[in-house]
Amino acid sequence: MRDRSHSVTSADVPQSHTAATPTGVQLDAWRKFLRAHARITRCLEAELLAEQGLSLGAYDVLVQLVEAPEHRLRMAELAGLVLLSRSGVTRLVDRMERDGLVVRERVDEDGRGVVARLTSTGFDTLRAASSTHLAGVTRHFVSALSEEELRVVGELCGRLADQQVDQ
Fold first, then answer.
1. b or e along 72-88 (b: 16 or more beta carbons within 10 Å of the residue's beta carbon)?
2. CATH no. for residue 58?
3. 121-154 pLDDT per residue, tens
4. Which domain holds residue 106?
5. Rounded to whole angstroms, how far apart are CA atoms 32 and 135?
């Protein structure tokens, strides 16, 4: 059994913050969501690295670029799509550029912006890695749920992803 002696409960939270404090059921759902995401992404990452020599982050960049108009995206837009910071995307694209998967190009319209563009090598790498990745998605996610559960999970996660963030 896990030691919960250091867990924070609503009794530990200052009174001024209790209105925003999740219930035990809510925290349990949140923690299970995080554990499931972490387990599945670790499995997918390990499989891609072992079979293709490609990180899950690099695979995600290739997917975003293949789906983009002209197979190119501004670096800031790419960072938002793959959920990495701008510096994280810059470092990842640096490595991918060295491997010939992408190239950086100046944006013609303003000369200041930079886009990442998928290369033919990147496209071929994505094609090869897709079989590994999609088999893993099926094995670690799809096969664990019914069609109805998948529909509900998709709907709920879509709602969470589309939620407006107040800052």
1. bbeeebbbebbebeeee
2. 1.10.10.10
3. 999 999 999 999 999 999 999 999 999 999 999 9
4. 26-149
5. 23
